Amino acid sequence: MNRKRGTGRGVILLAVLGLTGALIGAPAMASEAAPRLQWERCPEGTEDPAAGPPQLQCATVPVPLDYRDPDGEQIELMISRLASKSPDERRGVLLLNPGGPGGTGLDQPTFLASQGLPASVLDSYDVIGMDTRGVGHSAPVSCGFTNDQEYFGNIPPYAVDDAAVAKQATVAREVAEQCAANDKDGRLGQLSTANMARDLDRIRAALGEEKASFLGYSYGTALGAAYASMFPERADRIVLDSNIGDTFLDHAGMRRYGQGMEQTFPDFARWAAKRHESYGLGRTAAQVRRTYFEIAERVDKEPVDGINGTLFRLATFASLYNKASYGQAAQTWQSLREGSPTGGRSAASTPAPNDNAWSVFLAVTCNDVEWPEDVQTYQRSVAADRERYPLYGAAAANIVPCAYWQKPAEPPVRIDDDGPANVLVVQNQRDPVTSLRGGELLNERFGERSRLVSVDASGHGAYVLGDNSCALNRTTSYLVDGVLPARDVTCAAG
């Protein structure tokens, strides 16, 4: 999940930062050795100075780089704390993850508070943000991405035919080799959901808590599902919002992006049709959909303002994350329809601003589970999804560097359905990146341990980030009072 939206190539790419049983010999249980935390002021930029005095405190927690060698090299993870101001109501800690993998989470407590996280939740918990291993202030990693590379980040480019998939395979291989060459300290191979779940338990212990609650969005649902499965006796109240469907993202999971865009796009199309006199994109939703394909085909041939078909499709996909982005998306469409061709993009060979986030995304995604290695598999997937999900399927099914990555060090975390009933799965019915099917899958895998709150709403993020009263009330009730619904719930629009 990423909450920043905007125009321009760099912001378009940033917008999509938006996405395990233990290895034999690697302990599932994290050590109980709890360091004494030294709370200090958080790094500059963690909080907006215009919002008033700093509310967060930060500290570092040492964890093993490799849990198979717990007494070996240690790395430091930075965490943040928005402390409860009501000691009589405080019941524990609420660990947060904003998604990615690769998104910074130090500011997540104050961000959610600014978005309306209920006071009852803030009173009930010390709300804990963090940069997970490899991210930001927690032993950051880098593949060395630069602005002039033909690499567009977490989602591969739309492939018009088999030749385009084969071309992207060359890019994917080069990226995998580049990451390996830049991994001089061996840290990339230790970035996995299983290790991050072990880190969560180290953080819990360092905070002096017997149990920890968790609220995760997008990829954070994979991490939360892994924590609840690996440490069921440590996991308190678990909320998983905007679900990728398992403890890992694989080829099938990324292909669901195409499904998600098909399900979510009609909301934007109806919105734009009602505003045809302002934007001129079509008087009906069907006409707006046709306009999408017309613009994509045009800029595939002749880019406008440096935006080609790949970036146009990516920008439109990202705009569906939040209805607040619809106006900007419509403005961009309008400019591309009316603008003159300007040729392809050009960029200097400078470090890419998303280098760290893209590097972590790749490492975790590729280390969690094996991806198909043969190009033909991706060509077949792209051909099928180009027909099934014409808006974006041929991008989401395209080949990624994971096809050429080193083998995972351990199998993915297997969801444990034999544990306490303490998992609330919250899912918008129309979500471009984590479709409704992801929430349904995770709920099915947890069995009687979970309940699904299916929300008749559009966008990425339901609890606090959306405006559905039922989703807000159900989730708050669970976090504060521990009231898990007796059965799955469908929240009507509104």
Computed Rg: 22 Å
Structural class: alpha/beta
What strand line-up does the widest sheet have? Answer: 1-2-3-5-4-6-7-8-9-10
Tally of separate domains: 1
**Number of β-strand runs:** 10
What does this structure look like?
The chain is of the alpha/beta class. It has one domain: Rossmann fold (3-Layer(aba) Sandwich), CATH 3.40.50.1820. The chain has a ten-stranded mixed β-sheet, sandwiched between helices. Helix 4 crosses helix 13, helix 7 crosses helix 9 and helix 10 runs antiparallel to helix 11. The chain is globular and about 60 Å long.
List the helices and strands and how they pair.
Elements: H1 9-14, E1 40-41, E2 57-64, E3 74-82, E4 92-97, H2 108-115, H3 119-124, E5 125-130, H4 162-182, H5 193-206, E6 212-217, H6 219-230, E7 235-241, H7 251-273, H8 276-279, H9 285-301, H10 309-319, H11 326-338, H12 355-368, H13 375-388, H14 393-396, E8 423-430, H15 436-446, E9 450-458, H16 469-481, E10 489-491
Parallel strand pairs: 4-5, 4-6, 6-7, 7-8, 8-9, 9-10
Antiparallel strand pairs: 1-2, 2-3, 3-5
Domain AB hydrolase-1: 93-466
InterPro entries: AB_hydrolase_1 (IPR000073), AB_hydrolase_fold (IPR029058), Serine_prot/Carboxylest_S33 (IPR051601)
GO molecular function, one term: hydrolase activity
